[in-house]
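Need a sequence for this fold. Nothing fancy.
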C-alpha cells in the first residue's frame, strides 16, 4: 500500500502486519517549510514528526483505534532529522490502544513518540490574560515564514511569558496539506498551534540565557510530555500563548503552559524540555 501524504513529505510503501507497520519517509528538501524553520540549517520540525506519526496511526490503524485521534503522551527527540535523508518509521499499537512510533536513520534513533488518550490534566492553570506583569518585547527567533508564528510578545517576566499568534504565516498554511487540520480552509492544524507555543517558550528561554544576548541560537526540543489538543483554533483567531518556567538547568529548561482563544483553552502542554545551542555546533547532514 502506497500513501502520498503531506506536501513536504512522502510516505513510501507501508508494510503492515497485524499491530505493527514499517514505512520509509522522504522529506522534500526543496519545501520552504524547512528553510523557514531554521534558515541557516534546514531541519525537520519536531511538530511535523509528531503530526506525521499521528497521521500514519489514524490512517493505517483505524481498525485498532476505533476511529479515535490519539493525543501526544510523550515525544522524545534524540537527533536532528534533515530533509533529503530517508527516514524509517516503525509503529506499533500496544495495550490500551497506545501507539508507539520510532523514527530511525539506519540504526540511529531520531525520535520516539507515544500516542494515547491523555486523561491526566497537566499541572498548568491558565492565568488571566493580564496576569503576566512585564514589558512587551520583540520576539527574536531564527524562524522565518512560513514557520514563524509569533505576532507579538505581550508581556514577559523572569518566569512567565504571554505571546500571541494567529496572523503570521497564515496564508501559506491555508493552502498546504503538510499538517493535518480538521478543516484546512478554516482551522489551524493543531501541530502548528503547538509550534507557535514552542516558539513562545523559546523566547522565554533565550531571555534567561545571557550568552545568547547578541546571537540567535537553535532551539532543540528533547522531550514533550502530555500534550492535549482540546479545541479548534480558527484561521484568523487571536491565539494567546502562555508559558511558565518550571526548572532551569545548566544546559536545558523545562516549561509548561497552554494556548487559548479568548477564555477557551485549545491546547495544554504538561512539560517541554529544550536546550539552546549555537548553530555551528549542530551536525550538518554531510558531516
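Here you go.
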Amino acid at each position: 500500500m502506497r500513501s502520498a501524504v503531506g506536501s513536504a513529505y512522502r510516505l513510501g510503501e507501508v508494510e503492515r502486519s497485524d499491530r505493527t507497520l514499517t514505512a520509509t519517509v522522504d522529506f522534500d528538501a526543496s519545501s520552504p517549510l524547512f528553510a523557514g524553520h531554521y534558515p541557516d540549517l534546514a531541519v525537520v520540525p519536531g511538530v511535523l514528526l509528531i503530526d506525521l506519526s499521528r497521521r500514519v496511526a489514524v490512517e493505517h490503524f483505524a481498525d485498532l483505534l476505533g476511529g479515535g485521534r490519539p493525543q501526544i503522551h510523550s515525544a522524545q527527540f534524540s537527533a536532528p532529522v534533515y530533509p533529503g535523508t530517508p527516514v524509517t518509521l516503525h509503529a506499533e499499537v500496544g495495550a490500551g490502544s497506545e501507539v508507539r512510533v520510532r523514527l530511525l536513520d539506519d540504526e540511529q534513533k531520531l525520535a520516539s513518540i507515544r500516542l494515547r488518550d491523555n486523561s491526566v490534566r497537566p499541572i498548568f492553570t491558565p492565568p488571566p490574560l493580564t496576569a503576566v506583569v512585564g514589558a512587551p518585547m520583540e520576539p527574536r527567533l531564527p524562524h522565518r515564514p512560513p514557520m514563524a508564528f509569533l505576532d507579538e510578545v505581550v508581556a514577559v517576566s523572569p518566569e512567565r511569558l504571554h505571546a500571541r499568534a494567529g496572523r503570521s504565516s497564515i496564508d501559506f498554511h491555508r493552502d498546504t496539506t503538510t499538517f493535518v487540520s480538521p478543516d484546512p480552509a478554516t482551522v489551524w492544524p493543531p501541530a502548528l498551534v503547538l509550534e507557535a507555543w514552542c516558539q513562545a517558550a523559546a523566547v522565554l528561554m533565550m531571555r534567561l540565557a545571557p550568552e545568547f544576548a547578541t546571537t540567535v541560537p537553535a532551539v532543540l526540543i528533547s522531550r514533550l510530555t502530555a500534550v492535549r489538543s482540546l479545541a479548534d483554533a480558527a484561521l484568523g483567531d487571536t491565539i494567546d500563548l502562555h508559558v511558565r518556567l518550571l526548572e532551569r538547568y545548566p544546559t536545558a529548561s523545562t516549561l509548561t503552559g497552554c494556548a487559548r482563544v479568548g477564555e477557551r483553552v485549545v491546547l495544554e502542554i504538561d512539560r517541554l524540555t529544550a536546550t539552546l545551542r549555537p548553530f555551528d555546533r549542530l551536525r550538518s547532514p554531510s558531516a
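For context: DSSP finds five helices and 14 strands in the chain.
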